[in-house]
Amino acid sequence: MKRKMDFDVIVVGGGPVGCAVARDVAAAGRRVLVLEEHREIGVPVQCAGLISERTLKISRAPAGIVLNRLRGALVYAPGEKVLRLEGKDVYALVVDRRAFDRSLAEQARRAGAQIFCDARAVNFTYGPGGIQVEVRNGNAQAQTRRFSCRLLIGADGHNSLVARLLGLSRPRERVSLYAAEVLLPRDNGRLTQRLARIFLGRGLAPGWFGWIFPTGGNRARVGVGASPLAGENGTQPKPPRLLFEQLTARYPAIFEGMQVLQTTGGTVPIGLLERTYAERVLLAGDAAAHVKPISGGGLYLGLRAAQDCAATAVEALDAQNFSAEFLSAYQARWEAAIGMEIHCGLKHRETFLQMENEEMDFLISFLNRPVWQKLILKYGDLDHHSRLAARLAFVPPWAARFLNAGLKTLLRGMRKAE
What is the CATH number of the domain that holds 218? Predict the structure, then answer.
């Protein structure tokens, strides 16, 4: 006799990806619980909220969450050069990220999923017929509650407790971010309201970049990131908060008079995980490093993989087969859908991490010509960086770095073969 479980599926993490999985599994008539550690869905905001039209469509979120439509970008080299990319098409949407998250949560609720906020999963135990999940709320005196499920979905972010306790793969790199919602009273001209701003430099944003995403009027989202792999002379980069201050001081014409309304932080997991499944367990979203290695955006890749996660979960429930072998179909599915995009991004990221400021300056200067600007605008895709990267792979000095890295990889492979 099969033991009665509280739920068919428990999703740990109430972000967009976790709620998308919960929505689709619940829509198939299954009992689903979402555990969100924060008191509200969408709070705190830990994302710049830059997405594509494609992402908005697959999220099923309403168009009313769009705050601004961007038609290009200004890319600032470490020196004084600026690459201006501006087209007629909309290349990115700046959205109300809190409303975006809440839309996905409401979709999950309407499909039949239960969502518990202020509910932090603290332990997982395999038992007869399923997994026991221990849950606490934010109150230090709170009693521990326990829920059981046949299948556990870890959508609990870059530092996934599900992945850690169950011994699943972890991302190889974590980029730390610091960002703020700001008022830029001196930057409210029409020309720059339709353009993102990207700032490059090994000292300014080691292994990453700084950004301004205008949200309309004189409001904007400003941030910067740093990778532990990009410290100079083997040292760790400065904390992102100091880099943020450094960025705003470096460009007084842009940031003078800036008023910070709200600050936030975050971490971007970078890597291609070899195993995002185990017996009765699947990982999704940042927990599975479903993130673009070049930009750090995770909503499109995460939501696309969420479809495969939900489909695999429903098939496992139908077959009553929760073995690692059966659930490995999920790995094959998402790798077929988005794995090559992540792999391509990682290869170009290796090249970027090696570039010196002088090379970035030269690259921006080289690309700042009509023929290259048109090519970038034609093939630039917020979700599929590989489409443009393939056409820029042989632009000097990118080519020298890229080919040199590829040659080193080839030689390492030959040595192992010997």
Answer: 3.30.9.10
